[in-house]
Amino acid sequence: MRLKDKVIIVTGSTMGIGKAIAKKVVSEGAKVVIHGLEEDLGKQVVAEIGSENSVLHIEDLSNEGATQRLVDLAISTWGKLDSIVNNAAIVAASDIHSTDKAFLNKLMEVNTYAPLFLIKSALPHLIENHGAVLNIGSINAWSGEHNLLAYSITKGAIMTMTRNLGDSLFRENGVRVNQINPGWVLTEKEVERKKEHGLSDTWYQHLSKMYAPAGRIIWPEEIAAATIYWLSDESGPISGQVVDLEQFPMIGRNIPKDPSTIPHK
CDD domains this protein is in (predicted)? Predict the structure, then answer.
């Protein structure tokens, strides 16, 4: 097992990518702190992976002291902490006209500030165990869709943070910090979000090759599989790296000769 006896916090793990990551790390021998806002869903995750392998914490990460409480729970339950997966995020549509200060601050608090302060809260334990941090970003960090302005800003910020801390913390303390940027993933929330945008209940079964060359988008389990390398000792001294996980290149991608053939998501 590649993560045998490691203790890992996975934020936003009551559903979607976070849930898939939590299940995957336990299958590789880890113990996990499940976190999210949906207590009923969190209890289902614990039931699936076993209460001997997991403990649940329900709290908004923007609350004062929330990150320290997550760390304290890991320590009180298993006596140590090896890794953090900063996965929790608010995905909310906005453009320059609809983005006000309060809205941007809320997204920054959860998507960017909380990961930073969770790392800070956990740092003594990560130093002790030569631990690893994995930030879950987004390919929107590179520029973002026109209607994901605030969200994209927060993901651009966390990418810079990853590179900065990945250098400084590894040099100073041997703590690795890396990031993966998922592309379009078929999570429960994404299914509902697109239905709210007017698409059919089965929109994900009929996708243009423009957006999904494989004929489908990425499954959460495929993102989860990629996290194990970064959390395990297999990644050795690699730190400060950001890897895009999408089925086409973000830069230099071929554009259709006839732009009118591009469907709207």
Answer: SDR_c (cd05233)
pLDDT tens, residue by residue, 66-116: 999 999 999 999 999 999 999 999 999 999 999 999 999 999 999 999 999
Domain 7-183+220-243 matching CATH 3.40.50.720: the answer reads yes
Domain boundaries defined on the chain = 7-183+220-243, 184-217
Neighbours of 189 (CB within 10 A): 12
For residue 86 the two structure tokens come to: 């900063």
Q: Work out the burial of residue 126: count CB atoms within 10 Å of its CB; fewer than 13 is exposed, 13-18 middle, 19 or more buried.
A: buried
**CA triple 248-215-94, angle to 5 deg:** 65
Closest by CA position to 154, among listed 110, 89, 108: 108
Which pTM does this prediction carry? 0.93
Catalytic residue flag (residue 151): yes
Q: Which of 113, 151, 211, 229 is catalytic?
A: 151
Terminal Cα distance for the chain, rounded: 40
